[in-house]
């Protein structure tokens, strides 16, 4: 008789060779032994003990499938197990075929275990790669500075960083993918040549620069924001905000990388760089000074600002990926750049704040009165920000956005005569007003920029004017959200598409055009909230002294 890799011999003449095949709880076993047929085995008397073959016979068993066989007269007769095909579906198998059967029965659970392990590994790898990490510089081949469309940008992150950046802003920046810069950014700085100073703020200077591609002698134009050593904290905060991969959006300025330069001999000489997309039109404030907007331009620009701010404030990306909401806290026209497609992109996140729900009130203790005084919300000027409600920081941004929208609207030719550019509150305050002067104007006098009656004659401007006044409401809870503003703009755009011609009534009386509309005429009562109020209806009544004319978009 054989048993796996060794043989044993029955020592008593009355013993016969026996084989037991048992399947219990998805496990299968085969046992060979010698046994006296006069005694029970497994509470069963052995059948057919005089056979020369070990023919397996099904035996009753409560918790398992059991087959027995016994044989005699030949050595190792139980080495070959014979299964007769019967009601259990077994066919005639020889003993040596049992091992392949056992192996095959074990393959499926092993495959399941391997697949589960691989799936867990891939999940962990991708999940960890999406977590915000402390920035570590890496050089990659850059693709376009404008990120890909919503979901495609997130689904193809590796492809996105694997292609070459192509700005199209400069005739010399049309570079093929074969000229990609392949420096290891862990050890080398980007080959950047500063060209011209294009802006200067409280914390940093902004330079137009060349990102050289030495392999093919071509370059790309980028923007470099340079912080002095004393503004390290501002650079670190902005770098941290940009390092979140979920920040990428078409209306957020595209970030490339951050670097520390100089200061090998003295830390005070060190510079901190942020390298970003360069947009030739410059910031929104300078653009408004030099350009009068058409109605279509105004719509595109206003919608893009609302879209960018809504993305900052959202807790998910357009594809549903969770993200930490961000409050800008210094939103103004000089912190918005103009793109070549008449859209805007938010920039300058030096004061931005991640609205992480895991943070406590103590963590936000010093997060109240920051920003530019002219654009500060009433509650910020009064130092009465509700730090227990993270929505408070978003409401501050919405107030600032309303002033930016007013700036754009004041330079649109749809209102008739367009005056020279003035910042919000114009000559009511000095060029750089302090918090105290803005507190008197905004809190004590409840002052807001004027909205002339002529703005309400144009149907679209009427909607925009109402939206602006709802966004700068004195009560933070009564203000629209950035998402609601975006929905309102989208609805207005859809209605204009469905209407082939828009008629506008322009009063002949210049006195009527110039009469101001009270700045707080749509202010809500205290405690009135929220969600998305219905869009104001643009109703224009023709008067005897007016004549309608089509507005060409």
UniProtKB/TrEMBL annotation:
<keyword id="KW-0418">Kinase</keyword>
<dbReference type="Pfam" id="PF08917">
    <property type="entry name" value="ecTbetaR2"/>
</dbReference>
<dbReference type="InterPro" id="IPR008271">
    <property type="entry name" value="Ser/Thr_kinase_AS"/>
</dbReference>
<dbReference type="GO" id="GO:0005886">
    <property type="term" value="C:plasma membrane"/>
</dbReference>
<dbReference type="GO" id="GO:0005026">
    <property type="term" value="F:transforming growth factor beta receptor activity, type II"/>
</dbReference>
<dbReference type="InterPro" id="IPR000333">
    <property type="entry name" value="TGFB_receptor"/>
</dbReference>
<keyword id="KW-1015">Disulfide bond</keyword>
<feature type="compositionally biased region" description="Polar residues">
    <location>
        <begin position="543"/>
        <end position="553"/>
    </location>
</feature>
<feature type="compositionally biased region" description="Polar residues">
    <location>
        <begin position="508"/>
        <end position="520"/>
    </location>
</feature>
<keyword id="KW-0723">Serine/threonine-protein kinase</keyword>
<keyword id="KW-0067">ATP-binding</keyword>
<feature type="active site" description="Proton acceptor">
    <location>
        <position position="330"/>
    </location>
</feature>
<dbReference type="GO" id="GO:0046872">
    <property type="term" value="F:metal ion binding"/>
</dbReference>
<feature type="disulfide bond">
    <location>
        <begin position="71"/>
        <end position="77"/>
    </location>
</feature>
<feature type="transmembrane region" description="Helical">
    <location>
        <begin position="98"/>
        <end position="123"/>
    </location>
</feature>
<feature type="binding site">
    <location>
        <begin position="198"/>
        <end position="206"/>
    </location>
    <ligand>
        <name>ATP</name>
    </ligand>
</feature>
<feature type="disulfide bond">
    <location>
        <begin position="10"/>
        <end position="34"/>
    </location>
</feature>
<keyword id="KW-0732">Signal</keyword>
<keyword id="KW-0472">Membrane</keyword>
<dbReference type="Pfam" id="PF00069">
    <property type="entry name" value="Pkinase"/>
</dbReference>
<keyword id="KW-0341">Growth regulation</keyword>
<dbReference type="GO" id="GO:0043235">
    <property type="term" value="C:receptor complex"/>
</dbReference>
<keyword id="KW-0808">Transferase</keyword>
<keyword id="KW-0675">Receptor</keyword>
<feature type="domain" description="Protein kinase">
    <location>
        <begin position="192"/>
        <end position="497"/>
    </location>
</feature>
<keyword id="KW-0547">Nucleotide-binding</keyword>
<keyword id="KW-1133">Transmembrane helix</keyword>
<keyword id="KW-0479">Metal-binding</keyword>
<dbReference type="InterPro" id="IPR017194">
    <property type="entry name" value="Transform_growth_fac-b_typ-2"/>
</dbReference>
<dbReference type="GO" id="GO:0007507">
    <property type="term" value="P:heart development"/>
</dbReference>
<feature type="disulfide bond">
    <location>
        <begin position="54"/>
        <end position="69"/>
    </location>
</feature>
<dbReference type="InterPro" id="IPR011009">
    <property type="entry name" value="Kinase-like_dom_sf"/>
</dbReference>
<keyword id="KW-0460">Magnesium</keyword>
<dbReference type="GO" id="GO:0005524">
    <property type="term" value="F:ATP binding"/>
</dbReference>
<dbReference type="InterPro" id="IPR045860">
    <property type="entry name" value="Snake_toxin-like_sf"/>
</dbReference>
<feature type="binding site">
    <location>
        <position position="225"/>
    </location>
    <ligand>
        <name>ATP</name>
    </ligand>
</feature>
<dbReference type="InterPro" id="IPR000719">
    <property type="entry name" value="Prot_kinase_dom"/>
</dbReference>
<dbReference type="InterPro" id="IPR017441">
    <property type="entry name" value="Protein_kinase_ATP_BS"/>
</dbReference>
<comment type="similarity">
    <text>Belongs to the protein kinase superfamily. TKL Ser/Thr protein kinase family. TGFB receptor subfamily.</text>
</comment>
<feature type="region of interest" description="Disordered">
    <location>
        <begin position="508"/>
        <end position="553"/>
    </location>
</feature>
<dbReference type="GO" id="GO:0045121">
    <property type="term" value="C:membrane raft"/>
</dbReference>
<protein>
    <recommendedName>
        <fullName>Serine/threonine-protein kinase receptor</fullName>
        <ecNumber>2.7.11.30</ecNumber>
    </recommendedName>
</protein>
């Amino acid at each position: 008789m054989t048993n796996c890799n060794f043989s044993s011999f029955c020592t008593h003449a009355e013993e016969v060779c026996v084989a037991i095949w048992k399947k219990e709880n998805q496990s299968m076993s085969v046992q060979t032994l010698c046994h006296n047929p006069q005694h029970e085995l497994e509470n069963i008397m052995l059948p057919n003990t005089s056979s020369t073959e070990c023919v397996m016979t099904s035996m009753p068993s409560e918790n398992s499938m059991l087959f027995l066989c016994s044989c005699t007269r030949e050595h190792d007769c139980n080495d070959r197990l014979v299964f007769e095909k019967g009601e259990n579906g077994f066919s005639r198998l020889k003993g040596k075929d049992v091992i392949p059967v056992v192996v095959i029965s074990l393959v499926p659970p092993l495959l399941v275990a391997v697949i589960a392990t691989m799936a867990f590994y891939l999940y962990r790898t991708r999940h960890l790669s999406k977590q915000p990490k402390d920035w570590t510089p890496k050089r990659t081949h850059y693709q376009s500075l404008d990120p890909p469309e919503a979901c495609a940008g997130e689904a193809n992150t590796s492809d996105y960083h694997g292609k070459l950046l192509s700005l199209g802003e400069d005739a010399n920046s049309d570079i093929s993918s074969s000229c990609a810069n392949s420096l290891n950014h862990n050890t080398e700085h980007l080959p950047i040549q500063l060209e011209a100073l294009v802006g200067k703020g409280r914390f940093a200077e902004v330079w137009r620069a060349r990102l050289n591609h030495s392999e093919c002698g071509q370059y790309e134009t980028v923007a470099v924001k340079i912080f002095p050593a004393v503004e390290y904290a501002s650079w670190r905060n902005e770098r941290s905000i940009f390092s979140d991969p979920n920040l990428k959006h078409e209306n957020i300025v595209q970030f490339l990388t951050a670097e520390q330069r100089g200061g090998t001999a003295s830390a005070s000489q060190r510079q901190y760089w942020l390298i970003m997309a360069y947009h030739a039109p410059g910031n929104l404030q300078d653009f408004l000074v030099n350009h009068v907007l058409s109605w279509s331009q105004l719509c595109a620009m206003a919608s893009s600002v609302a879209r960018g701010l809504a993305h900052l404030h959202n807790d998910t990306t357009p594809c549903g990926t969770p993200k930490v909401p961000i409050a800008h806290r210094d939103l103004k026209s000089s912190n918005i750049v103009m793109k070549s497609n008449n859209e805007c992109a938010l920039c300058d996140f030096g004061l931005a704040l991640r609205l992480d729900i895991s943070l406590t009130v103590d963590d936000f203790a010093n997060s109240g009165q920051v920003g530019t005084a002219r654009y500060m919300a009433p509650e910020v000027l009064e130092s009465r920000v509700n730090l227990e409600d993270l929505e408070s920081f978003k409401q501050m941004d919405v107030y600032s956005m309303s002033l930016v929208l007013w700036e754009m609207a004041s330079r649109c030719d749809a209102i008739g005569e367009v005056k020279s550019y003035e910042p919000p509150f114009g000559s009511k305050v000095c060029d750089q007003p302090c918090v105290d002067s803005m507190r008197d104007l905004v809190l004590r006098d409840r002052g807001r920029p004027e909205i002339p009656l002529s703005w309400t004659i144009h149907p679209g401007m009427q909607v925009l004017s109402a939206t602006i006044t709802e966004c700068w409401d004195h009560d933070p809870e009564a203000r629209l959200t950035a998402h609601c503003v975006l929905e309102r703009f989208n609805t207005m755009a859809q209605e204009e598409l469905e209407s082939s011609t828009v008629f506008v009534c322009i009063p002949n009386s210049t006195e009527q055009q110039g009469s101001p509309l009270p700045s707080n005429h749509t202010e809500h009562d205290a405690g009135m909230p929220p969600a998305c109020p219905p869009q104001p209806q643009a109703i224009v009544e023709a008067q005897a002294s007016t004549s309608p004319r089509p507005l060409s978009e």
